[in-house]
Amino acid sequence: MTVHKAELGRFFEDFVAGDVFQHPFGRTISEADCAWFTLLTCNTNQYHFNADLARQNPVSGGRILVNSGFTIALVLGLSVIDMSQNAVANLGMTDLRLKHPVYVGDTLYAESICTGTRASASRPGFGIVSMSTRGLNQDGDEVLSWDRSVMLPSRESGYGQDYFPTAKTGAMTLPA
Question: Around Cβ 11, how many Cβ atoms within 10 Å?
Answer without folding.
Answer: 21
